[in-house]
From TrEMBL:
Record field: transmembrane: 12-32, 47-69, 81-101, 116-133, 154-173, 179-202, 214-231, 251-277, 298-317, 329-345, 365-383, 389-408, 420-441, 447-467
Superkingdom, natural source: Bacteria
GO CC annotations on file: plasma membrane
Keyword field contains Cell membrane: yes
Residues in coiled coil: none
Keywords linked to the UniProt accession: Cell membrane, Membrane, Transmembrane, Transmembrane helix
Subcellular location: Cell membrane
Record's bilayer topology term: Multi-pass membrane protein
Name of the protein described by the UniProt record: O-antigen/teichoic acid export membrane protein
Native species: Marinilabilia salmonicolor
């Protein structure tokens, strides 16, 4: 099977599972947005943002390090790599125990009141459980078992929606019930994935040698993760400081309706890395011509598809959000263009820069994300007080695009790739400009006008030769075969 076909196949399988997860998750949205006020919804998202920060620190870069050394290790050593990472991951549970004693102070920091201390306790439970869930899920990627990954995704989604409806809607536990639903559904996946599928893949031997390598590789990624959190999530806290939880709610609802692009990103990330490293380490030619071509072909295919999807979501978000949620959340549509194109830039810097990881120069991630994080802080200070959640979205977009461009240039020093940059940027900014124009001046363009603009972006992807008929036929064939 060709590399592009393998990429499309794996991406579609992962995309199917994650798409089902997002769809089932969206089933909760009408219930949550009617049971929770915009402010309470903002509180729930603030807890999620805090979980991302703590999890980013405690992950210690092990996710990336584990994936890198798993493919580099000999066959008989792979189990030792996985086991060492597993034992290191278990340390995240006792590390968070002292935080519980400061729950009221943290509640005051997050919500300006000590009354939500128990939510902080749930947060401290959710973080290590999510880290273990991620650990188990990534094993399915390493062994190219996407259908098992999809099964666990389905279990997680169904458990979350069942617990969410029971605790939030029926028992009326509000934000606390939603947090318990997240903890319970993640824990169920950890138990099932480990107990049924993955425990045979471990040797349960802790290796100091592998631990040193994993931590050395991952340590710079802690700082990169912190910086990434700043430009990914800190805008919620700027909104809290300068405005209120309602602004966080609008921003969060816009982010939720931007998730189809994140869905594609997740599918690409899960399939691309495995295919790329397999090709790189198996190709005998030192110049790696096949691997280089594969990386470029896969990226331009991703870019074309994601820009078309991002434009569609932006053009019609003002109709979709009130329909799925309530009219109270409709204002969130104004941030969608900035977020969906931010997510494209984010996946672009993930996919376009393999040279840094290949050279094991992960310290580059730390300084690049650090510079971008500082830029994001400055932009939030300038834009959020004046434009609220829309300013936060614009700050995110600018930061992600800058990160994308810097990282690609640095990575090219170690593993240069011939990307058609002019055509890539032309399609990206064409879709972005069209999307922003329609969102802010919807009265100028009616429904038919939006459809025409969407077809303009699609046509541009073909004219720039970033998308072709053969790729569409491959996608169609894979979708058709998956239904047989």
């Amino acid at each position: 099977m060709g590399s592009k076909k393998a990429f499309i196949k794996d991406s579609l399988v992962y995309g199917l599972g994650n798409g089902l997860k997002k769809f089932i998750g969206l089933l909760l949205l009408p219930f949550y947005t009617r049971a929770l006020s915009v402010g309470e919804f903002g509180m729930l998202e603030t807890l999620g943002t805090a979980a991302a920060l703590i999890g980013g620190v405690l992950s210690a870069g092990l996710e990336s390090a584990n994936g890198f050394y798993f493919f580099k290790a000999d066959e008989h050593e792979k189990g030792n790599v996985l086991s060492t990472a597993f034992f290191l991951r278990l340390l995240s549970f006792p590390v968070l125990i002292p935080v519980i004693f400061f729950r009221e102070s943290l509640s005051r920091l997050l919500f300006d009141t000590p009354e939500h201390g128990f939510l902080v306790v749930l947060l401290c439970l959710l973080v290590p459980v999510n880290l273990m869930m991620s650990e188990q899920s990534h094993l399915f990627r390493y062994f190219r078992q996407p259908w098992r990954y999809n099964l666990m995704t389905l279990v997680k989604s169904l458990a979350n929606i069942g617990l969410g409806i029971t605790l939030v809607i029926v028992l009326k536990y509000g934000v606390e019930g939603a947090m318990w639903a997240r903890v319970g559904s993640s824990l169920l996946v950890v138990v099932l994935a480990f107990g049924v599928f993955n425990f045979r893949k471990y040797t349960f031997c802790f290796s100091l040698s592998w631990a040193r390598k994993l931590l050395k590789y991952g340590f710079p990624l802690i700082w990169a993760g912190l910086a990434a959190w700043i430009y990914n999530s800190s805008d919620r806290f700027f909104l809290l400081y300068y405005h209120d939880l309602n602004e966080v709610g609008y921003y969060s609802i816009g982010a939720i309706f931007s998730q189809p692009v994140l869905l594609i990103n997740m599918a690409v990330q899960m399939s691309f890395g495995v295919l790329f490293y397999q090709s790189y380490y198996s190709e005998k030619n030192e110049l790696k011509p096949h691997t280089r071509k594969m990386a470029v072909d896969i990226y331009v295919l991703y870019l074309a598809g994601s820009v078309i999807l991002a434009t569609f979501l932006s053009l019609f978000s003002d109709s979709l959000i009130p329909f799925v949620a309530t009219p109270d959340y409709a204002a969130g549509s104004r941030v969608v263009p900035f977020l969906v194109f931010s997510y494209i830039a984010a996946q672009s810097y993930q996919t376009m820069g393999p040279g840094i990881s290949l050279a094991e120069k992960t310290w580059h991630f730390a300084w690049i994300t650090g510079v971008t994080a500082l830029l994001n802080i400055v932009l939030n200070f300038l834009l959020v007080p004046r434009w609220g959640f829309v300013g936060a979205g614009l700050a995110t977009l600018i930061s992600f695009v800058i990160y994308w461009q810097i990282k690609v240039q640095v990575a090219a020093r170690y593993f240069p790739l011939k990307y058609p940059f002019a055509r890539i940027l032309l399609l990206f900014f064409s879709g972005l400009i069209i999307s922003v124009f329609v969102v802010f001046w919807p009265e100028v363009v009616g429904f038919m006008g939006r459809l025409i603009l969407l077809f303009v972006v699609i046509a541009l992807a073909f004219l720039l030769k970033l998308l072709n008929r053969r790729d569409l036929l491959v996608v169609f064939e894979r979708l058709k075969s998956s239904h047989k």
